[in-house]
Write a structure and sequence with these properties.
heterodimer, A: MetI-like fold, 11 helices, B: alpha/beta, four-stranded antiparallel β-sheet, 11 strands, 21% strand, globular
C-alpha cells in the first residue's frame, strides 16, 4: 500500500474512533424531543439538563442546515450559508483594504533602510495589540458596527503583510539587484522585474498569515458587534442553548478557514520559485 | 584614439575604514593596466587581494577609492550594457525560465527590435552554449554547469563591448569546468569577445588568456607582473599541454603564487623592487631563465 493510501486509511480510522468515542462520552439518554409539543420543546421539558451533542446529533443538524443553507427568516434566523457569506464578505473587505495599503507600503519600507528603521518602533508597538481592543475606538469613530468589524479585520491583517513585504523586499539577493544594474534597469523596472518577483514568496507568506488571523478575529468581532455573521450565529445558538448548532458551526468555521487558507496557498504556489 | 585606449586602468585603489579606529586598510593600490580590443585577460591572485572588487570597479557596480578606469576614453562610473558581467554564482533569475532570462537581457539592450528578433537572438545564444533543448526549463531544474551556461548566454546575448567574468567556473566540478572551458574557447575564437576574467585555475588562465595579470597578496595588493601567453590560438584543452611553452608558463605562475606573491610588499620596502616598475612585463621566452633566477633568490 502506498504512503498516501495508508494515510487515508489511518485518517478514516481516526474519524471512526472519534465518532464512536464521541457517541459514548456524550451518551444518548435524553434525546426524546421528537414526541414533545412545540411548547414543551421550548420549555426544555424533554431534557432534564442540556448536554453536549454527540457526533450523530451534529451530523443530523449539519444535514438539516446544509440542505437549505441560504434561508432568511428575519434577524435571528438565517441559514448557515448566509451567515458565513456575511463573515467572508467582511473578512475580504478588511483583508483587501489591507493588501492595498500594506503591500505597496511594505515595498517602500523595504526599499529604504531609513524608512524601515524609522517605522520599526511603531510597527512593533502596534503589532501585538489585540485587534478587538480597537473595537470601541472603531465603533465610536466609524459609528457603524459592520464597518467597525471590517476595520478590525483591516488592522489585524495589516501587520503580517507589512512586515513580510518589507522583509521580503529587503532580503532580495544583492546578486539579483546587480543583474538589474548591469542591464541598466531603472528604478521602476528593477522594482517590478527584479524585486517584486524575488520577494513574492515572502509577501505571500505574510498574506497567508494575515488571512488566518483575519478568520480567527472575525468570529470574535461578530460575537461582540452582533447582527449577522458566523460569530454572531455561534453566540446566538449558545443563547438558544442549541449546542448541536454550536458544534456544527464550529466545524463550519474550521472548514471555511481551511478553504480560505488553501486559496492563498494555491496562489502562493504559482509565484513561488526554487533557487 | 589608438587601440591601446580600449580599456585603460590607472592607479586604481580601494581602501576601507577599519572598525574601531580611524585608520584605513588598503586592499589594493597602484593598479594600472590596459586592454586592447579582442584581448582575453585573466587576473590571478590569492584570496583577499581584491580581484573581485577590481572586477566590480570595471563593471561599475562598485566604486574604487582612487584612480580611474576609462573604457573607449570614457570614465566608468556606473554599470552599463556595454560591460556584460558573468557572476561567480551565475545569478540567473530563478523565477524566469532559461529563455526568459536571456530575452529579458536582450530587451534591455536592444529596445527597438521586434519580439521575433528578440526570440531568435535568444535562441541563437542558447544554441551557442548548447542549451536550446532546456530553454523552457526553470533554473532549478538545471545542473550547476547548465546554470552557468545560461549566465554565459545571457552575457553574450547583450553583445557587450567588454565582458567581465568573476570566477565563472569556480563553483563547478572539474569535468563540467573542462567542458565549459572548451565551450568558452570555442565561443571566444568565434566572437573575439574582449574579456577580463578572474580565475584561480592556472590551466584555465593559460588556455584562455592573451595576458595574465598576477596580483601580489593583499592588503596593499598590486598587479606585480603581466605574463603574455605566447601559445598561438586557436587553442585546445587537450593539445595545449603539448606546446613547449605551456609548462614553462605554468611553472612560472605556480612559482609566483607559491613563492613570490607574498614577498612583493617586503621587496618594495627593502628597495629590491621599485613601485614605479610595477607591473613587470614578463617576456614568455625568458620564463625558464627567470624561474631559475627566482628560485635562487628564495
Amino acid at each position: 500500500m502506498s504512503e498516501n493510501k495508508r494515510a487515508i486509511l489511518l485518517s478514516i480510522i481516526i474519524f471512526i474512533v472519534f465518532v464512536v468515542i464521541g457517541e459514548l462520552i456524550t451518551g444518548s439518554g435524553e434525546r426524546n424531543k421528537k414526541n414533545l409539543t412545540e411548547y414543551e420543546q421550548l420549555m426544555g421539558m424533554g431534557e432534564t439538563q442540556a448536554h453536549v451533542p454527540g457526533p450523530f446529533e451534529v451530523f443530523e443538524r449539519a444535514f438539516e442546515e446544509l440542505s437549505h443553507p441560504f434561508y432568511d427568516n428575519g434577524p435571528n434566523d438565517k441559514g448557515i450559508g448566509l451567515q458565513l457569506l456575511y463573515s467572508i464578505a467582511r473578512v475580504l473587505a478588511g483583508y483587501l483594504l489591507s493588501v492595498i495599503i500594506a503591500v505597496p507600503l511594505g515595498f517602500l519600507i523595504g526599499m529604504s533602510p531609513v524608512f524601515y528603521k524609522a517605522l520599526q518602533p511603531y510597527i512593533q508597538i502596534l503589532k501585538p495589540i489585540s485587534p478587538l481592543a480597537w473595537m470601541p475606538l472603531a465603533l465610536f469613530v466609524i459609528k457603524d458596527s459592520i464597518l467597525s468589524s471590517v476595520f478590525v479585520i483591516f488592522i489585524c491583517s495589516i501587520w503580517p503583510m507589512l512586515i513580510n513585504t518589507a522583509f521580503g523586499v529587503m532580503s532580495v539577493k544583492k546578486d539579483f539587484l546587480n543583474v538589474g544594474r548591469t542591464l541598466e534597469m531603472g528604478t521602476f523596472k528593477t522594482a517590478f522585474q527584479i524585486i517584486l518577483p524575488a520577494s513574492l514568496p515572502t509577501i505571500f507568506t505574510g498574506l497567508r498569515i494575515s488571512m488566518g488571523i483575519s478568520w480567527l478575529v472575525i468570529v470574535a468581532a461578530e460575537m461582540l458587534v452582533g447582527g449577522t455573521g458566523i460569530g454572531y450565529y455561534v453566540w446566538n445558538e449558545w443563547n438558544n442553548l442549541d449546542l448541536a448548532s454550536v458544534v456544527f458551526s464550529i466545524l463550519m468555521i474550521g472548514i471555511v478557514g481551511m478553504f480560505l487558507d488553501s486559496i492563498i496557498a494555491q496562489a502562493a504556489k504559482y509565484f513561488n520559485y526554487v533557487e | 584614439m589608438t587601440m591601446k585606449d580600449f580599456l585603460k586602468v590607472e592607479n586604481l585603489s580601494k581602501s576601507y575604514p577599519t572598525t574601531g579606529d580611524k585608520s584605513f586598510i588598503t586592499i589594493y593600490e597602484n593598479v594600472s593596466f590596459t586592454m586592447e580590443k579582442g584581448e582575453f585577460n585573466c587576473i590571478i591572485g590569492h584570496s583577499g587581494c581584491g580581484k573581485s572588487t577590481i572586477l566590480n570597479n570595471l563593471a561599475g557596480l562598485d566604486h574604487a577609492s582612487g584612480g580611474s578606469i576609462k573604457m573607449l576614453g570614457e570614465e566608468v562610473t556606473k554599470p552599463s550594457l556595454e560591460r556584460g558581467v558573468i557572476f561567480q554564482n551565475h545569478s540567473i533569475l530563478p523565477w524566469l525560465t532559461v529563455f526568459k532570462n536571456v530575452t529579458m537581457a536582450i530587451k534591455c539592450k536592444f529596445k527597438d527590435i521586434s519580439k521575433e528578433d528578440v526570440d531568435s537572438k535568444a535562441i541563437h545564444f542558447l544554441k551557442m552554449v548548447g542549451l536550446k533543448d532546456a530553454m523552457h526549463k526553470k533554473p532549478s531544474e538545471l545542473s550547476g554547469g547548465m546554470k552557468q551556461r545560461v549566465g554565459i548566454a545571457r552575457a553574450f546575448a547583450i553583445e557587450p563591448t567588454l565582458l567581465l567574468m568573476d570566477e565563472p567556473f569556480g563553483a563547478l566540478d572539474a569535468l563540467t569546468r573542462g567542458k565549459l572551458q572548451d565551450k568558452l574557447v570555442e565561443i571566444c575564437d568565434k566572437t573575439h569577445q574582449t574579456t577580463f576574467m578572474i580565475t584561480h585555475d592556472i590551466d584555465e588562465a593559460i588556455l584562455l588568456s592573451d595576458k595574465i595579470l598576477l596580483m601580489s597578496d593583499g592588503p596593499e595588493a598590486k598587479i606585480a607582473e603581466i605574463v603574455t601567453v605566447n601559445i598561438p590560438k586557436p587553442r585546445n584543452r587537450s593539445t595545449i599541454v603539448n606546446h613547449p611553452a605551456f609548462y614553462d608558463i605554468r611553472n612560472y605562475l605556480v612559482d609566483f603564487l607559491v613563492n613570490q606573491s607574498g614577498t612583493i610588499n617586503k621587496k618594495l620596502k627593502k628597495g629590491e623592487l621599485k613601485e614605479s616598475e610595477l607591473p613587470i612585463s614578463v617576456d614568455p621566452h625568458e620564463l625558464r631563465f627567470q624561474l631559475e633566477n627566482n628560485s635562487l633568490n628564495t
